[in-house]
Amino acid sequence: MSFPSVRLRRLRRTPALRDLTTNVRVHPSNLVCPIFVDENANAPVSMKSLPEYFRLPLDFVADEARKILEHGVKSVLLFGISSKRDETGSSGFCVNGIVQKAIRELKKEFVNELVVMTDVCLCEYTTHGHCGIVDGNEVVNDSTLEFLQKMAVSHADAGADIVAPSSMMDGQVRFIREALDDAGFNQVGIMAYSAKYASCFYGPFRDAAGCAPSFGDRKCYQMGYGNSDEALREMELDVNEGADILMVKPALPYLDIVQLAKSSFSLPVAAYSVSGEYAMVKAAAKLGWVDEKAAVLELLSGIKRAGADIIITYFAKDVKSWLNQL
Ligand code: PBG
Hints:
The chain has 326 residues and is of the alpha/beta class. The protein is built from 11 helices and 12 strands. Helix 3 runs parallel beside helix 4 and helix 4 (141-158) crosses helix 5 (172-182). The structure holds ligand PBG.
C-alpha cells in the first residue's frame, strides 16, 4: 500500500486529530526544577548568564518550592553556594551546611508532596573548584569517595528523598549506597549522573555557583563527547552499583545517549537540560530569533521522545502555563 491510497495527511487535518495521535507528551510532573540556595545572599541574586533565574537566600526557599508546586512540578534539585570553602569541601557535609538547612526547611513544610533531590559533588564547596579531593594537580578518585559518602548521608539525615552524585568518581554510587544503608537510610534513592560529559554548556552554571575549576579542566573525570561506548559502561556500572535513576547530562547534544539509556536498561532515565541549553534559548528569544515558548516545548518533547522519563530543566516552572495556552 502506498500513495495515493495511503495519505498520512489524513491524520493531520485538524488540531483534534493531531492531539489524538500525539504519542509523546511533556507533563510538569516529570520535570525537576533546580534551586540555588546561597548562604551569602540576603535577597534573590540575579545571574547574568542564567537570565530570569535567581540564587536564593535560605528563607526564600520554601516560598519558591510552593510556586514550583503551583506550576505542577513536584521535584526540586538543590545546589548550595557556601560562604566557606576549603580543600575538602567540608561545608558541603556539615550538619548546618546551606543545603542541609534548605532540605530541612522544605521538609518542614512539604513532607511528601515534594521530592527533594540534592547534588552531591565537591566543586561547590572546594577552594579549587574541582569535583574531588586534589593532590598536586590530580583529582584523586578513591579519597574523594569518603567525602561524597559524608555529603550524601548528611543530605539524607536532613530529609532528602534522592541524592544525585555528580562528581564522576569511579565507584561513587556503590560507596554512597553502602553509606546510606549503613546509616539507616535505605529508602533514600540515588539518581546517578551516570553519563555526564565534560561540556561547555555548564558555563552559566559555573558562573552561578562559582565552581569553575581554578586550574585545568574536568576532562579527567567527566566523559569526552567523542565517545558513546563509555556512556554505556558508566551506566552499566551504576546500575550494578545500585542506582535508582540513570541520568544523562547535558541533554540536547546527547539525545543518542538518552535513547541508549532507555533502550539498554529498565531504570527511569533522567536527562539534565543544562544551564547552557537554557541560556541559548533565552538569548535567541531575547533577540527575537526564536519563540521561547514554542522552542522550549519542542526541545522538551525531543528530549522526551529520545527516551527521558524525567527532565531537569530551568524552564520547569513555565511549562504548565505554556501547555495550557496550546
Ligand atoms: C556539579 C554540577 C555541575 C552541574 C550540575 N552539577 C557543574 C559541573 O560539572 O561543572 C551543571 C549544571 C548546569 O550546567 O546546568 N559538578
